[in-house]
Amino acid sequence: METLEHIISEHSFFSGLESYYTNLLTGCASNVRFEKGTYIFKEGEEANEFYLIRAGKVALEIFAPQRKPIMLATVGEGEVLGWSWLLPPYQWKVHAHAIETVRAIALDGKCLRTKCEENHDLGYEMLKRFARIMEQRLEATLLQLLDVYAAGK
Amino acid sequence: MTLQQLERLVPALHSRGYQVIGPIVRDGAIAYDVVESLSDLPVGWTDEQEAGRYRLRRRKNDNNDDEALFGYVVGPQSWKKYLHPPEVRLLTAERSGRTFRILNNEPAPPQRAFLGVRACELAAIAAQDRVLQGDRYRDPVYAARREGIFIVAVNCTQAAPTCFCTSMATGPRVRGAYDLALTELVGPGRHEFVIEAGSDAGAEVLAELAPASASSVASEALCQEAEGAVERAASQIRRRLDTTGIRDLLYANFDHPRWDNVAQRCLTCANCTMVCPTCFCTTVEDVSDVTGTHAERWRKWDSCFSQNFSYIHGGSVRSSAKSRYRQWMTHKLASWIDQFGSSGCVGCGRCITWCPVGIDITEEVRAIRESPASAKENNHGNS
Amino acid sequence: MTMATAATTDFMLPQPYLVQQVVKETADTFTLTLEPSDGTGRNRFQPGQFSMLWVFGVGELPISISGNPADRAQLVYTVRSVGKATHALVSREVGETVGVRGPFGTGWPVEKAEGRDVLVIAGGIGLAPLRPVIYEVLHNREKYGRLVILYGARSPRDLLYRKELTAWARQPETQVLVTVDYGGLSWRGHVGVVTTLFKNARLQPARTLAFACGPEIMMRFVARDLENQGFAPENIYLSMERNMKCAVGFCGHCQYGPHFICKDGPIFPYDRMRPLLEKYEL
Fold it and tell me: Taking the CB of residue C12, how many other CB atoms lie within 10 A of it?
């Protein structure tokens, strides 16, 4: 049976992280499962965790009146869900909807923030990794905005 | 008072200029319409009601036909048919040159007397009074029809399985403002009424029906018998709606899975809003003739169950059946309290009877109350 | 049986107003200036209130008043043509008649801003119901502190009141920042959603009243951003919108939770709106 520590250290998101740090992270980790159709978190709620998705798929959604929920992006196996825990105001900006049953490792954001404040090297490692995710998401969103598939405007 | 004495009620009201509206049998149901005498009433009829079911049948009393005038509860219509009509013209206008003129030519509605107003219905009239006359604006259409209504209320001596007026503290004994209130006592070889006046106008009519004398005042025993009959009606009531903290309960359970459950059954047919005696939503339609010189504005009953009720440019805010059922029930039982100071539901049970799939508002409340979604489930429930 | 007299029912009856001017603001948006056809009429209004405008025989629409509250002679409305009734309204020509009922609703609490700074945040046509606030502040300048206007539209061609925006920016103690979602080829200004303007705005949350109007989702994000910047929720005001038929609380269409937008609103403080805004399909 895989231990939490093993899963974390093997996860691509944390590749290159010294085992000292993966130990620290394990202290803030737990196994979680979300049934298909449930919401993992909702816009406006306090953001106190992030998730390493091991199985299933999550849709990031925004609710606007008069429209069906708008799906912005999907996050799947091997990917990381949620970065709003990292920086103030620690608030989710979108809904996370488990569109398939999701198994994940939940990492306690408050616990981690404390550890990052105590150990700035850990903090830097986390920020580097999350910054890369944000950059990838931003680039993807820019391309989405361009609406490249639209018929000639 | 005997039946013969009561027979003089309708003529007495006519002589005072009232058009009398009362219950009649039509299309297999109790409806409200103009009555000319007590014989127009559903004499000897009763109703059988359950969720999604309504039938009339003849009353039987020890194998004899019973001639009760009020031996049933409430039908699909309510007094809002007259006070807050299904269709009413708000204005007529004429083009003149490049401008228009509003014509002040709406006919005055007749002076009316309502015969047979049940306790729940009296409460419903009071509720609509509050909505349409007791807030920032007074609706002149309602006011013109409401003013001067002579109310002959009737205390129920039987309850239908769908009634729950006791839960809503509206009945079965009439409470509130009425001119006359009567309790019918009928049995083998007897048919009499205990009647009391609730206003000066009522006392005046009562004096004509039964000129003051020792014999006209109801005996203590008769009054107690009338009380007992009404209490018997109360004891027959089976359905309960627990109103404790209901406003906060419904506000807090916006994401309860029960709404998905009822959404699978609800057809959004709007029957409940049509039969509900307190529902007041309307829409406005502007029409003009072919030449475009004559325009009318009409107001018609509308329902929050309709798809485009909440339409603003771009789409409807409440698109799903789930959101529309939730809106109706939450408004009726919760928001109404914030808006008007009391519940919008009078416990008449019509919505239960006339729902084609038998959705029962008392059961929906129970389901939510008995399993309030946990805080996390509420926020993360199925959507 | 008495018939209701005209005086008690004038909120039910449209008064005829003459179209004095029609100005095309954008491809689908027009500003109408109306004057009462008989010289009388109720032209006093609070910024943020709306009228029901009636096109003879076609239909009636709730439209925010977007003129100067100090101008008692006329009423001004900026209307976007999105359907049959709005199209009929914007197609009126000078000299034709439009029926007016109102004004209705609650206004922006500008009096609460006396001695304080005012932040106006508008998205798209949301600038129209806020323009009376801007007029009120600029025409009574000494009563108010700084004025900051943040305005976002879809594209440069959708910007309203462009000349006025330039004029307002030149007023003392006034900052105007404009952005668009899509810049196009010749736009040299800011590009991005209106919340991206916050970093350039000189704001002191503790002494500022914020008034926001635009698509609901925009107001939701703006209000949350303001709160995160230190604005108290009771100092943030939003203008809400729902289907309206009667404007006087009888038809039931405009209900939003327990509120009737026509008479309890359309202006609401954010502390009352926050729990409702997150409820989908409320």
Answer: 23
Residues from chain A that touch C281, judged by Cβ atoms under 8 A, are 65
Contact B380 A41 (CB under 8 A): yes
* DSSP class of B149: -
- What parts of chain B have a pLDDT lower than 50? 375-383
Rounded CA gap, B367 and A77, in Å?
37
| Nearest chain C residue to A94, by CA | C221
Q: Is the minimum CB–CB distance between B288 and chain C shorter than 8 Å?
A: yes
Give A41's contacts in chain B (Cβ within 8 Å).
380
* ipTM for the predicted complex: 0.93
**CATH fold group of domain C110-239:** Rossmann fold (3.40.50)
The predicted structure's pLDDT at residue C43: 83
Whole-number pLDDT of residue A65: 86
Mean pLDDT in runs of 10 for chain A (153 residues)?
A: 82 87 89 95 93 94 87 88 90 94 94 91 92 86 73 50
DSSP 8-state class, residue C196: G
Please name the member of C215, C217, C278 whose beta carbon is closest to the beta carbon of A44. C278
- For chain B, what is the domain count? 2
Asked if the model's pLDDT at residue C6 lies above 80, the reply is no
Rounded Cα–Cα distance for residues B362 and A93 (Å): 38
Using an 8 Å Cβ cutoff, are B253 and B368 in contact? yes
In a domain, B93, yes or no: no
Quick one: pLDDT at residue B61? 66
**Cβ separation C246–B282 shorter than 8 A:** yes
Chain B residues closer than 8 Å to C6 by CB: 104
pLDDT the model gives residue C136: 97
Q: Of all helices (H) and strands (E), which one includes residue B274?
A: helix B271-275
A64 touches chain C (CB under 8 A): yes
Give the tens place of pLDDT for each residue, B87-142.
999 999 999 888 899 997 888 999 999 999 999 999 999 999 999 999 889 999 99
- Minimal CA separation from A108 to chain C, in Å: 22
Provide the pLDDT for residue C41: 65
Of residues B377 and C249, which shows the higher confidence score? Answer: C249
A64 near B CB under 8 A: no
Chain B residue numbers touching C11 (CB-CB < 8 A): 137
B195 and B343 share a domain?
Answer: no
Q: Which amino acid is at B225?
A: E
* Pair B141, B38 in one domain: yes
Shortest alpha-carbon distance between residue A40 and chain B (Å): 7
pLDDT at C3: 39
> How does DSSP assign B254-309, residue by residue?
TT-THHHHHHHH-----HHHHH-SS---EEEEEEE-TTSSEEEEEEEE--TTSTTT
- Interface list for B 307-346 with C (CB within 8 A): 309-313, 317-320, 322-323, 327, 331, 334-335, 338-339
Q: What is the pLDDT of residues C94-111, one digit of tens each?
A: 999 999 999 999 999 999
Question: What stretch(es) of chain C map to CATH 2.40.30.10?
Answer: 13-104
Structural domain boundaries enclosing B128 = 3-86+107-236
Residue B101 located in a structural domain? no
Does the distance separating the beta carbons of A91 and C215 come in below 8 Å?
A: no
Q: Do the chains contact at B95 and C56, CB–CB below 8 Å?
A: yes
Supply φ then ψ for residue B363, to 5 degrees.
Answer: -75, -35
Model pTM?
Answer: 0.91
CATH 3.40.50.80, chain C: domain bounds? 110-239
Exposure letters B284-322 (e unless 16+ CB within 10 A, then b)? bebebeeeeebbbbebebbbbbbeebbbbeeebbbbbbb
Whether the CB of B286 is below 8 Å from some CB of chain C: the reply is yes
With contact defined as beta carbons under 8 Å apart, do B125 and B171 qualify?
no
What's the confidence (pLDDT) of residue B249? 97
Q: pLDDT for C130-150, tens place per residue? A: 999 999 999 999 999 999 999
Residue in chain A lying closest to C241 (CA): A65
CATH 1.10.600.10 fits C13-104, yes or no: no
Nearest C-alpha of chain B: how many angstroms from A2? 29
Q: Which residue of chain A has the CA closest to B381?
A: A38
- Domains, chain A, in order of start with CATH, read 4-146 (2.60.120.10)
